Amino acid sequence: MNKIFTIIKREYNTRVRTKGFIISTVLIPLLFLVGFAIPVIATLMNSEKPQKIAVVDRSGHIFSKLQSVFTDTLKNGERLYGFFQVKAEGQGLNAVKNQLTKEVEAKQIQGFMIIPVDVLDTGKIQYYSKNVSNFSVNERLSRGISGIVNRIRLEKQNLDPALIHTLTKGVKLETFKVTRSGKQQKDAGATFAVTYILVFMLYMAILIYGATLMRSVLEEKTSRVVEVVVSSVSPFKLMAGKILGVGAVSFTQMFIWGMTLFLISVYGVGMAASLGAGNVLAKFHIPPLDPVVLLYFFLFFILGYILYSIFYAAIGAMVNSEQEAGQIQTPIVMLLIIPIMLIIPVISNPDSTLAVSLSLFPFTAPIIMFMRISVLMPPVWQIMLSFVFLGLTIWGSIWVTARIYRVGILMYGKRPNLPELWKWIRY
Amino acid sequence: MNALEFQSVTKNFGNVRAVNNLTFSIPSGSIYGLLGPNGAGKTTSIRMLMQIILPDSGVIRTFGQDQNNGYLDRIGYLPEERGLYRKMKVKDVIAFFGELHGLKTSEVRKRTNFWLDRFGLADWAERKVEELSRGMQQKLQFIITIFHEPDLIILDEPFTGLDPVNAQVVKDTILEERKRGTTIIFSTHLMEQVEKLCDRICLMNKGRAILEGKIQDIKQKFGKNHVIVSYKGDSGFLSDSSIQSYNDYGNYVEILLKPKADPQELLKKIVKHAEVFRFELVEPSMHEIFIETVQAPGGDKNE
After folding, report:
1. What is the CATH number that goes with domain B2-216?
2. Which of B85, B102, B145 minimises the CB distance to A2?
3. Which among A223, A232, A406 is the nearest to B84, CB-wise?
4. How far is CA A169 from CA A146, A157, A340, B103, in A?
5. A359-391 as b/e: b if 16+ CB within 10 A
6. Do residues B2 and B26 touch, judged by C-beta distance below 8 A?
7. B157 reaches A (C-beta below 8 A)
8. Roughly how many angstroms between the first and final C-alpha of chain B, as a whole number?
9. Could you read off the pLDDT of A179-200 as tens digits, one per residue?
10. Domain B224-282 is in which class?
11. ipTM for this model
12. Residues A37 and A53 placed together within one structural domain of the fold
């Protein structure tokens, strides 16, 4: 047992101290944080200035109502929109326009608008500003003035605006996620985003750390150091130690990444709100990551990693170079890619026969079952059965791969073909 | 007591019989030469001893006991194919293998300084293995082999790649270890080393032991029918009827006489044709024994 621990310690220490590991471990959570913080920061940075807008109201209907409609305030309580009227009579419209254009350029006002005489019929208003692509201002002006114009139109027809508003009220679709426990929670599709992130983390981690282990085995083989190592520890213990050592490295990374995601999802919204940007994130509606889902994430990660890593270890022992390893690992990579290609059908229909059978098949189970769990909790017996199958497959695979490993690490030269591999297993 | 015993050990790889009914024993505290041409089954035998592979039949006893897990820590193995973790620091590599052999961290630190000093590597303790020259890596690997003070040391070609100075340090260390009571197995092709260092040998060919025992006994068995001749002039005498075979080394010729041939008669013949500087009746060198035995029809047979 001590020897396995010595192997684990070496694997862990030499890997965790590399620059690559430290950078990627810190960088990914940083990316999560940045992705999350951008809308928050954007809101905080966007220091809204009071919009001083000149109005040339040639219709005579609109200006008087503007201030009562545009009641938006800034954070400090000041009014966001300030309107003042400019009369065009006597000077001619062009002269007024020129004058106001100069004021806009001098930043004395943010913009001016010209409301034509026949605005009620044409429904058109001209707005001049330095920044006409500020959508929030444009949209707000358009909506506000439309309201005023509609109101006047209705009143002209002797209709009650309040009544019309009630009668023409639209229908809003609210979506709810139904979970097995019977709870219903409001869902805005963000569950899928979190599932995507976690599934990809699972896939990448198994793939990357499986390959890391393979390279590590191959390196010991090509540098011939393995012969010294197996003269004091059995090949099986060496293989176990290496799998657990690299596994501990990857678990360290996954734990840091997973917990960052978890903390952001749970506390991020609250923190953003306390900074005064809560309303922005409310739109995104990030659901807090369920700790149970997170637990399953780690469980399936560990089992998936072990299952695939024992095959990667055997491949590393069979080959003599990275190129050879690249060819021979294709079937393994294919097995890992299948669940990723099926992410859409499984997420949209997590109880389908396809999803259920793939979530029980050991080689796709870690990713597919986790997908199902994070979308719609499957019956407990299915999860348990999936664990049992995984466990049995790992047990059987170790029996086979340990034999290949034992022979392979000391065999140089030609890569074995299948009959030779069979011989190795029986040695 | 014997440090190691092989009794009728056989190992097959598919249709190839790598080791065939091998029997030999190594007394404690001796230096034992395990010899043989490439592919004779030496490495397979060593790997079976290290429990890396298991024999198909036969018994291997180490330190008087049947194989169990405990004894591996009492063995130090320097394989022919050298290799270390290139990216690790010298002292970390030593610590790793030390701990792998069950040493405590404090003990590891103490011994590390001693051995690095002894082999002139003290300044390299913090460097990565890949920064070391080939000779230094050889020395480092040798340190790792004997670091845990094993009772049985297996050295496969320990002197290759070492300059005479370092080879001397390694040789001295081997002899010191022997004084401590350590048993040493020496696998090499360099027969001079064998002759200088070994007490006993086992000559293997095609998986079998074809010659086993004390070097003195083996040499006596081959008898004093070898002649070393150093001469200048006509080499025609080499085809004389009293000569069974000869081996021309350039500076001298080693001649194997036919049984019952008289060396004095041969000397007379040579003097007629050539100028003789040296004419010495000797025991056969291990080199000659090696070649004769391996090439003899009996040494070549497979079953």
Report:
1. 3.40.50.300
2. B102
3. A223
4. 16, 20, 43, 82
5. bbbbbbbbbbbbbbbbbbbbeeebbeebbebbe
6. yes
7. no
8. 32
9. 555 444 555 455 677 778 888 8
10. alpha beta
11. 0.78
12. no
